[in-house]
Structures are given as C-alpha cells and as structure tokens.
Write a structure and sequence with these properties.
The complex is a heterodimer of chains A (229) and B (384).
Chain A (H helix, E strand, L loop, with lengths): L2 E12 L5 E12 L3 E5 L6 H8 L7 E6 L2 E2 L5 H10 L1 E4 L11 H13 L4 H13 L15 H13 L5 E5 L7 H18 L2 E5 L3 H6 L2 E6 L2 E7 L2
Parallel strand pairs in A: 3-8, 3-9, 6-7, 7-8
Antiparallel strand pairs in A: 1-2, 1-4, 4-5, 9-10
Helix pairs in contact in A: 3-4, 3-5, 4-5, 5-6
Chain B lengths: L1 H13 L1 H37 L5 E5 L5 E2 L5 H6 L4 E16 L2 E10 L3 H5 L1 H4 E4 L6 E5 H7 L6 E6 L4 E10 L4 H4 L2 E5 H7 L5 E2 L1 E6 L7 H11 L4 E5 H4 L1 H39 L1 H9 L4 H37 L15 H28 L2 H7 L1
Parallel strand pairs in B: 4-9, 6-8
Antiparallel strand pairs in B: 1-11, 1-12, 2-10, 3-4, 3-7, 3-11, 5-8, 7-8
Helix pairs in contact in B: 1-13, 2-11, 2-13, 2-14, 11-14, 12-15, 13-14
Classes of the chains: A alpha/beta (229), B alpha+beta (384).
Chain lengths: 229, 384
C-alpha cells in the first residue's frame, strides 16, 4: 500500500542553554488508510512526535513528508492549509471554542477553508454529529457539554474537511471506559468508511490491541513496531 | 473575513462586562473630544463675532484727505477683485456737536445706504421707527432714555464748519455697545451728502468677507492695496486685533493638545483591554491555528474587535457629547437666557469624532493583533 506519511531522521531538542533531546533519529513510514496506535510511557516523546507530524512543532533536524512533500519547505500559510485540509486533530483536552455551539465548532475548519458555510456543509456537519451520537446537543455551547460529548464534537470537527490523516493524542485520556469504547468504535468506523489514516497515541492496551499497527516509543526512540496482518 | 467577524463578535460577547466597560471608556473619551472641540470652536466664533461681528473686516480710507471721492473708486471692480469679498458698503461720517435740552454732546452723523445693513446689521438693531429720506436721523436709545425723546422730536446740530442744522428723529437703535451707541447716529447717505455739502464724498469703504474666509483678510487687503493707488489706507481686522489672534491661537493649540491626550488615553485603554483579551483568548487562537487559520486572519480577529469597539464607542460617544453640549447650552446661560457660548454642532465635527474613534481603535488593536500573530499553537497544546 501507498505511504501517506514519511518521517525521516527526526531529532528534537528542547531548551536553549541545557539541551534536552526528546526524539532520536525517528524513521517511520505510515500507510494510507492504516489505523496506528502509538504507545509509550509519559515523557517518552510520543506527543512531541505527533505534534511535529502535525506541523504544530518543528523538528530540530530531519524531515516530515506528507503526501511526498516536505513540511519544512512550506510557508507558514501553506502549513496552515495542510493542517486545515489534510490533517485532522483530536486532542486529549478537546480544545473546542467555548464561545461557539457544538455545530459551529464542527464547522470552524470548513469556514476557515471556504469562508462561507453552505447548506450542504451544514448538512454534513449535522450528519457527522449524528455519526458521533450528538444530534441532540448540536446547538448547545461547547462549554455546556460533558467531557465525552466535547470529545465527540472534536472528532466530528476533525472530520469535517475530509482529512487524509487524523492525529489523535490520547483522545480518550480522561474519559471513562464505556465512553472510550464508543469513541474508538467511532474512529475505527470512520477509518473503514473513508479510508482515513489514523495515528493515535493511547495508554489503553485494549485499544492498542485493536489497531493495525502498534508503534512503541521509549526514551525518544522507536522501541517496538508491530504490524498485524 | 466573515469568520473573523463572527469570532470577534463572540469573543466580545463572551466577556460582556469587559466589553461594556471599554465601550464606555471610548464613549467618554470621544464625548469629551467632541465637546472640547465644539466648545472651543464656539467660543472662538463668539469671540470673533463679538469683536468683529457687527463690523467689517477690511476698511479703506483716504490717506491724504478726510474724504474719499466716490467717483475715484469703482465699487464693482472692487467686488470682482476677490471672490471671498462678500459685502461692500461705504458711508459718510460727519463729526458734529448735537444740542438737546441745552445739553451739548459729540455726535457722529453717519450717512448710509441700503448696503450698510449687509455688514452692520443695523435694521436688526433698530428698536423703533426707521431710516427716512430727508433731514431725518436715527439716534440711539441711550439718548432717548436720557432726554425722554420721541420720534419726530427735533435736535440741533452744529457741524464742524460751524454751520447749524435741525434734524428730526425718525427712529431709535441700540447696538448694546456703549462706544457705538453714545457716538453714532444714522441718516440717508444722499441726504447727508446734500445737507452737509459733501457731494460724492464718503469717509470710508467697508468690506465684509465670508465667514469661512475671515482669516484671509490680510491677503485680501493686500490685493486691494495692489489694486488701489497709494492714496488709500487699507486696514484689516487681523492687524487691529493681534492680541485677540494670538489668544485664539493659544486656545486652539491647547484645545488640540487636550484632545490629543484624550484620544491617546482612549487608544491606551482599548489597547490594554485587547492585549488582555489576547491573553484570555490565547487558547482559542491556538486551537484556531491548529485548525489551520492563517496568521493574518487570526490577527484580523483583534482588528475587527477594535473596529467594533470603536464604532459602538463612537456612536455612544457622539450621542453623549451632543447631550453634554445641549446641557451646556441650556444651563450655562447669560441672565437673558442666551447661552454663554453659542455652540453649533457641525457634521464635520461629528464625522471627525467618528473617524478619530475608528482610527484610534484600529491603532490600538494593532499591537494585540501582532501579538496574536506570534502566538504558537504548540505552546497552548503542550501546556494545556
């Protein structure tokens, strides 16, 4: 299968005076349409890796290739477009805009891309909300939703622009196990339905086991990389 | 732009107290700016009016003789010399000694024609009677009261050349300026010229300039000087009122300085509130950037907030300012209930106040906007 994402010799240092290396020569190839779990202890560098892939952070050295293009060669505006159109983010802490309703939050990436919300776009947002089981709270302010609901809104938002890759950093990190399972079912469904590539950081072993591939990071290096057949 | 506007609006709404306070802050600033600018303008206009209002701005007299021979100057040509010249009149002044009830006093008999009113507004100040053809004279109310005079009473006049005349009173006037009222009386120019044997003679030509060009009196008087021969002396109000002018200048400058400081404090106020708002909304800006909003668009959110605040502040401020001015003109009055300072609210002052509010709001939001540009989404995401 085609690789959608390539990580070449990525190193990451933090700190100006005392250099602290977080990532060591990471090399990875991610296949299009695959469902990947990234596991590892906290502080192992897995979040940093995900943020670097998502162009939110920059590697100290090395390259990220999305669809064959090198990220570091792009302008900040072009990167913003990639984040908007090619990538979808789901964070542990949801990060919705509290001033907007669930539906409006879902539509924000669409509006960033197109400026205007069409009827079709609104329809699609409603379908996505339905898909994550939130058709009843679409007009509630994000700040009035429960943690699980907020996370599902964030998933619908990550999907609105039909991204090729979804980067999720412990998307169920602070949710109960029942909600966790519901959310993973949703993600897996989307993966199958739209052939969306998933990179998910998780602590949940059950979830990791369900993935196509488990990448374990330890002390900034790839410690284990298991693919299921 | 639509998204930025939507976000800007939501941000402002989500912090209602802060938004209301800053709009009030802008409003008060703009109201004060408008009030001061109109107050000073009104004050200066009324000062100028009181000084030269019932007066001409340029006067022409003969340099060599007591009188000008009117045939020597073509009034029409003078008119066409400069289109800022609005009115021209001329009169003949006869210095005389008047005698009423065995009292003698100096009296200037001024022969005037219809054009006199265009500069001196005499008709407005005539309290009874009117100017009549023949040997009739209009006297000030001061004498009417002092000597118990009535219309058609006669007064004796001893002219400079010792000739005596008897004139009848055809009316009374009151300018309210003692120096004028005590010395001036009026009669028809032709009749005066005939009576005092000053055919075609006039004492001076007076020129009125349109109000908005009043400060160009010196240039216009130079033009007139170039046109006329050296036999004439040309005076303009600016030469005669240098103290007033420097006073007005000082007043204008201090008014502008006050306005500038008011506006600066408004700018600082908006700027600090928006700067705080960038901090408060850092998380949201970070999320938006992670979602792919471009730096310029993120910055425009704060510019739009500035414009919204400025527009609302301007509207409320202008209304407040107008109310303030109305209160001032209603309650700060002279004993006769006329306002101490006549203030006219002009469109230009309102438009200026509006633009000042908008421009200062945009200026104030520049720093927060730049700050939001520099905001890095990773800082928000990493630090939660």
């Amino acid at each position: 299968m085609k690789n959608i994402l390539e990580i070449r010799k990525v190193n990451k240092f933090y700190g100006d005076q005392i250099k602290n290396q977080v990532l060591f020569d990471i090399n990875l190839l991610i296949e299009e349409g695959s469902f990947n779990a990234i596991i590892g202890a906290s502080g192992s560098g897995k979040s940093t890796l995900l943020n670097i892939i998502g162009s939110l952070d920059v590697p100290t050295s090395g390259e990220i290739l999305i669809g064959g293009r090198i990220e570091s060669h792009m302008t900040s505006d072009r990167l913003a477009e990639i984040r908007n159109e090619v990538l979808g983010f789901i964070f542990q802490f949801h990060y919705l805009l509290p001033e907007f309703t669930a539906l409006e939050n879902v539509l924000i990436p669409y509006q960033i891309k197109h400026g205007k919300i069409t009827k079709e776009a609104k329809q699609r947002a409603l379908e996505l909300l339905k898909e994550v089981g939130l058709e009843k709270v679409e007009n509630n302010l994000a700040s009035n939703l429960s943690g699980g609901e907020q996370q599902r809104v964030a998933i619908a938002r990550a999907l609105i622009n039909n991204p090729k890759i979804i980067l999720a950093d412990e998307p169920t990190g602070n949710l109960d196990s029942k909600t966790t399972n519901i959310i993973y079912d949703i993600l897996r469904n989307i993966n199958k339905k739209y052939n969306t590539t998933f990179l998910i950081i998780t602590h949940d072993e059950n979830i990791a086991k369900k993935a196509d591939r488990i990448i374990e990071i330890k002390d900034g290096k790839i410690f284990n990389d298991t693919k299921k057949d | 732009m639509k998204l930025s506007y939507k976000i800007a609006k939501r941000f402002l709404k989500s912090n209602k107290n802060q938004t209301v306070l800053i709009i009030l802050g802008i409003s008060v600033g703009i109201a004060v700016q408008l009030f001061i600018s109109l107050l000073i303008t009104g004050l200066q206009e009324s000062l100028i009016n009181k000084t030269i209002g019932n007066n001409s701005q340029i006067s022409i007299t003969s340099f060599t003789q007591d009188y000008i021979n009117k045939e020597e100057i073509n009034i029409n040509n003078l008119y066409n010399l400069d289109d800022k010249i609005e009115d021209i009149t001329y009169y003949l002044d006869i210095n005389s000694l008047a005698n009423i009830s065995d009292d003698n006093f100096n009296l200037i008999i001024r022969g005037i024609d219809d054009s006199y009113d265009s500069i001196y507004n005499l008709n407005k100040h005539i309290t009874s009677g009117k100017i009549k053809r023949g040997n009739y004279i209009i006297l000030s109310e001061n004498y009417k009261n002092k000597y118990n005079l009535k219309i058609n009473d006669a007064i004796k006049i001893l002219a400079n050349d010792q000739s005596t005349f008897e004139l009848k009173i055809s009316g009374f006037y009151k300018y309210g300026v003692k120096a004028l009222d005590d010395t001036l009386s009026f009669m028809n120019l032709n009749d005066a010229q005939n009576l005092f044997d000053k055919k075609n003679k006039i004492s001076s030509i007076q020129i009125g300039i349109s109000n908005k060009n009043i400060f160009q009196a010196d240039e216009i008087s130079k033009n007139i000087d170039n046109y006329l021969s050296n036999n004439y002396e040309i005076d303009n109000w600016k030469e005669n009122n240098e103290d007033l002018l420097s006073g007005l200048n000082g007043q204008s400058i201090s008014s502008i300085i006050i306005q500038i400081f008011v506006v600066v404090s408004v700018v600082l106020g908006i700027s600090s509130v928006l700067a705080i708002s960038v901090m408060q909304k850092a998380k949201q800006i970070g999320i938006l950037k992670a979602m792919g909003i471009k730096n310029k668009k993120a910055a425009s959110i704060f510019l739009i907030q500035g414009i919204i605040l400025g527009t609302l502040g301007a509207i409320i401020g202008i209304i407040l300012g107008i109310i303030l001015l109305l209160l001032f003109t209603t309650f700060a009055t002279n004993p006769d209930n006329t306002p101490i300072v006549e203030i006219t609210i002009t469109y230009i002052s309102i438009i200026t106040a509006f633009l000042v509010a908008i421009i200062s709001s945009i200026l104030a939001s520049l720093i927060p906007a730049l700050k939001s540009c520099k905001l890095n989404p990773i800082d928000i995401i990493r630090n939660n």
